[in-house]
Design a protein that fits this description.
It comes from Durusdinium trenchii. By secondary structure, this protein is mainly α. It is 49% helix and 0% strand. The radius of gyration is 26 Å and the shape is flat.
């Protein structure tokens, strides 16, 4: 994030904390950080204009909208256009999540809404109600919009050859999800015409048949043995490494080039060819997400990964994300890594202050009692005093509207 963007994010947080019930503050904050919706007063989480501003910025913000807003088709469609996963059930840790779950189930059980959603993104099929997932017409719309929706179909619909054909016509690599059709020459040919790499998912019989090769992949046999040709392909799509000659698939530099382009290629290769610590750390400097495939042998390995980026904390095992020394190291490199720490450590004042020393936005991920601590908001890099309100102030139902104090309900 650029310095200018980070400054804007800090300012937006300040506005919300200053007064979570002011709509003008809310709209300014949500234009920068959609998930700030979670910190607004209930009446603003029920305001369609406010929620629309949030989901336009970040579809995931829909999780914190009022249940009535989660029934609003316009809002739900706008959220899923940013992130289709916003259709999944809200996190149970959200205190108003149960009502939201019920509201969402109502929307996802509506056939009219389902059809509209699938035309926008076929992967929305995953979140439909069980009854609607049985609807063949909705399944057809899903795979026609995104062939990879074929993976999500209920088992009986995956057996439908015409649906599989529609899917591979849209995205040849969807052939992977219907291995029972791997020997169907017509269906395999349709997949390969869309994506030559799809031939990897054809049956061994078809792959070994020279006549089939000539029909669906003319001149490809020699192509995948040529180093220069494979390198050129890898710059376009890393996962095509699976089509290369076996010797090339074991070349560390070939694997590195492929994984930089698409980390998923690692799932298709023998782990012994790439799962060394040095290789993973080198690759992590190009794409931190590859650490999801790492095997963590020791705390020392984890510390080395955190030197690449504190955000590597996301990919560490649960027990290491609950290790205070590990988390302190992570947030010392990147304050936002606090979001991946255990709940106990997100409540730890020392850990939160160290994260804040790196970037103030880390406070978004701290435990609620620390987000509402006046001393934390006055923190400027030095150890702040603990804020202990006088007895008469504790007895009041509402705190005075001073700068830096959040008025709670």
């Amino acid at each position: 994030m650029s310095e200018k963007a980070l400054k804007g994010l800090h300012s937006s947080i300040d506005l919300v904390v200053k007064d979570p019930a002011r709509k003008d503050y809310a709209l300014k904050a949500l234009a920068v950080h959609g998930r700030a919706l979670q910190f607004l007063a209930p009446q603003l989480r029920a305001d369609k204009e406010v929620v629309l501003k949030a989901v336009k910025n970040d579809g995931w913000a829909l999780q914190w909208a009022d249940q009535e807003c989660r029934k609003d088709r316009e809002l739900v469609l706008k959220a899923m256009s940013k992130d289709v996963r916003s259709l999944q059930s809200p996190d149970e840790s959200i205190r108003f999540g149960q009502n939201n779950i019920l509201a969402l189930k109502e929307v996802l059980s509506d056939p009219t809404f389902a059809l509209e959603a699938l035309k926008q993104d076929g992967l929305a099929y995953e979140f439909l109600s069980p009854d609607l997932k049985q609807d063949r017409e909705l399944a057809r719309v899903a795979v026609t919009q995104d062939g990879h929706a074929l993976e999500l179909l209920v088992p009986e619909l995956k057996q439908d050859r015409s649906l599989a054909y529609k899917a591979v016509q849209q995205k040849g690599s969807a052939l992977e999800f219907v291995p029972h059709f791997a020997n169907d020459l017509m269906l395999v040919s349709a997949a390969v015409r869309n994506d030559p790499g799809a031939f990897h998912w054809a049956s061994k019989e078809l792959q070994a048949n020279r006549e089939v090769w000539l029909q669906v992949c003319p001149e490809r046999l020699e192509h995948w043995k040529n180093l220069a040709s494979v390198e050129k392909e890898l710059h376009l799509e890393g996962t095509v490494l699976r089509m290369a000659d076996p010797l090339l698939k074991k070349d560390p530099e070939m694997i590195f080039q492929a994984a930089v382009q698409n980390r998923q290629v690692l799932e298709q290769l023998d782990p012994s060819t790439w799962r060394s610590k040095d290789f993973m750390l080198r690759l992590a400097r190009e794409d931190l997400g590859v650490l999801r495939f790492a095997e963590w042998q020791s705390r020392e390995d984890a510390m080395e990964a955190l030197e690449v980026s504190g955000m590597a904390l996301e990919f560490l095992p649960e027990e290491l994300r609950a290790d205070k020394d590990i988390v302190l190291e992570a947030v010392g490199h990147s304050g936002r890594a606090l979001q991946f720490a255990s709940a106990e450590l997100r409540s730890d004042r020392e850990v939160v202050l160290k994260a804040l020393a790196q970037e103030r936005t880390a406070l978004l991920f701290a435990a609620e009692h620390l987000r509402r601590d006046k001393a934390i908001w006055l923190y400027d890099g030095e150890e702040p005093p603990f804020f202990e309100p006088p007895p008469e102030e504790e007895a009041e139902t509402e705190a005075p509207e001073e700068e830096g104090i959040v008025v709670t309900e």
